[in-house]
Amino acid sequence: MIAIDFSVFAFLYVSVGVAMILGLWFYYDRRDKSLYDRVRVRTAFHCVKCGTLYTEQGEHDHAICPHCGFENAKLKF
Ligand SMILES: [Zn+2]
Questions:
Q1: pTM of full prediction above 0.85
Q2: Is residue 23 pLDDT above 90, yes or no?
């Protein structure tokens, strides 16, 4: 049997716990980012024909106005 000092054991015990928490935090952060990026990222458009403001999910350079059907370029801020 391996004999280790109690302070070494306590240090390893806490280190493993902290490493597990950080690992789960990193895993769920990356998972949420990949799952919800498509939903969160929206591109805003302003129709030059009818004046409607609308958004489309994801990154788009052009989108068709849902009100009049005119194709508009994305808004640049
Ligand atoms: Zn329009």
A1: no
A2: yes
